[in-house]
Amino acid sequence: MFHKLRLKLTLVNASIILMLFILLIVGAYYFLQFDMNRHADFLTRKIMSDIQSGRIKDIPQHPGKESEFPARLQEGLPEGPLPPGPPPLLGPLLGAILGPQPGLSHGQNFFFVESASSGDIIFKSSVQQLSPDRLAVLTTTTLQTAALQGTVTFDQIPYSYLKSSLNAETETFILFRDLSPEVNMQRNLLTALIIVGAICSLLSFVVSFFMANWAMIPIQKAWQQQKNFLSDASHELRTPLTIIQTNLDIVRRSPDETVSCLSKWVDNIQQECVYMAKLVDSLLFLARTDSQQQTLDKQLFIFNSALMQAVVSFETVAAEKELSLEVSEDVLIQCYGDEARIRQVIGILLDNAIRHTSVGGKILVSLVQVDTKALVTVADSGEGIESEYLEKIFDRFYQVDSSRSRGGAGLGLALAKEIIESHGGVINVSSIPGTGTTFRIWIPLLAH
User: Fold this and answer.
1) Which residues make Cβ contacts (< 8 Å) with residue 280, sequence separation at least 6?
2) How far apart are CA 7 and CA 9, in angstroms?
3) What does the alpha-carbon distance between residue 306 and residue 301 come to, in Å, rounded to a whole number?
4) Mean pLDDT of the chain
């Protein structure tokens, strides 16, 4: 299941990134084409206007020398103010990516001819890339087109043209521009974008795979915790149910006996029912806490009173085991929280201390105020806990040694931790094997 989910997350993430790359490549290519065409069209019209007005009489062979070809036009910028709109945006970027492109910087790809109505060439600019015969064919082909502006392909080379009638339409002026440098540049750019896109797509797949693995870690952990939780809960519930069923079978085999004669079995059933009720209540509290649906009845209460009520409930149990149970209190401490749940936590720690302290041992419970927090300490002289187990004892259903659990389900400390943390507090433990264990609880006194 997790393998398929990991693969699905990887493919989905990689597909999204790939689509973004494709959109970026297509968008950049068409934006470049639009920007180049817009700028070329404006430059073509500007040159035509300057030729018609007489400011340009020729496009010389060497535009770097002084000539009638304006210096600004040689640099690709027409004279006079630019029309509304941004200048070419991708020129510097393309120059950095593709390097210098012949024919794009000084206008050498522009040339013009003046043709008579018969199609004969009357005048041609000094800059010419074609032989006279090929130029005549290109001119004739262009004259045969109906559009005044457009593109023709000659010898597999695209040329843009702009026609203008002169001398009462007896002569036609045609300005050409060799588009092969732009086409080559667009192809180079498209190739570069495709290569970069392919590399980035491969990298995105690799990164997506690692991200999917990273995202799967908490999912797998939560899934395993859920499986363990259900397994442990089923195990803990199965034991009391088996005991109840066994005792009921004994009772049913003695239909003529009175209740007093069967009190032992009835008491066992009642004891297991109480145990199950507590277990179900703990499971319900933890489930609600996980789903953030657990609400606490918080209000101001006297911490000293809550502590003493929790301790009194265990005095008899401690006395039966000949344990010394001592309580040390600070001045009167007022706290804001759920008093019943706080007493439950203290009861869990006391029950844990009594069950793991040998006969004749000592248990010390203290309450002091440290700044704005109440510190509750429950220390015993019991068997202690090995250091490698200290970080695990707050896990649900975890028991250091099931043979020494003495009836515990392994939920008490997990429940205590959830209650304390829901109050904004902290609980920790320190222990020395063979010497004893100390639990400390810090709870904010003010509202949290």
Assistant:
1) none
2) 5
3) 8
4) 79
